[in-house]
Amino acid sequence: MERKPLFHFFPGDIVFSLRGLCCNFRCPSSYTQEALGEIGPHLDAYCVGIKGFSTETHREVANFSDLCGILASTEHARTRWGLQVECITSVIPTMNDNPEELREIVRWIAANLGPDTPWHVTCFVPRGECSHLPCIT
Asked: Which ranges of the chain would DSSP assign to H, the alpha helix?
């Protein structure tokens, strides 16, 4: 659960996720539809990290290879629970910076979540185990 402003949930307003007033969930890319079924009724928003658009990329970047499960759970959050869904991708040089794969993410979001779904693309900052990777300049 996050306790920070949701700027896209109510554009122009700052809404904090405090006790059901506006509760949002940031998915670490491993929640199943069953798990979402337990928490879905209590959420207003769902943020999912889409690390890449192939099983190989997702395994390499997130050490989690069930991309189809992530996408299905994200669609389920939107359709079953009517949650405001936001997607985020941190572009990591040499790992998930393939332009065609990024286009596939955009196509999937537009087709399955709707063209108004926010997609946050963030710049990778090398730290820890990934400190050997280049930074996007």
From this structure: 33-39, 55-62, 67-79, 99-112
Tens digit of each residue's pLDDT (9 = 90 or more) over 7-17:
444 444 444 44
Q: Return the residue matching tokens 């928003």.
A: 45
> In terms of C-beta density within 10 A (0-12 exposed, 13-18 middle, 19 or more buried), how is residue 109 classed?
buried
Q: What is the dihedral of CA 120, 101, 35, 123, to 10 degrees?
A: -30
The pTM of the full predicted model, rounded to 2 decimals, is 0.74
DSSP designation for 136: P
Q: Output b/e per residue, 19-39; b: 16+ Cβ within 10 A.
A: eeebbbbebebebeeeebeee
Is the dihedral angle over the CA atoms 9, 14, 19, 21 positive or is it negative?
A: negative
Which residue type sits at 79? T
64-75 pLDDT per residue, tens: 778 888 899 899
The fold of 24-130 is TIM Barrel (3.20.20)
- pLDDT at position 62 is 76
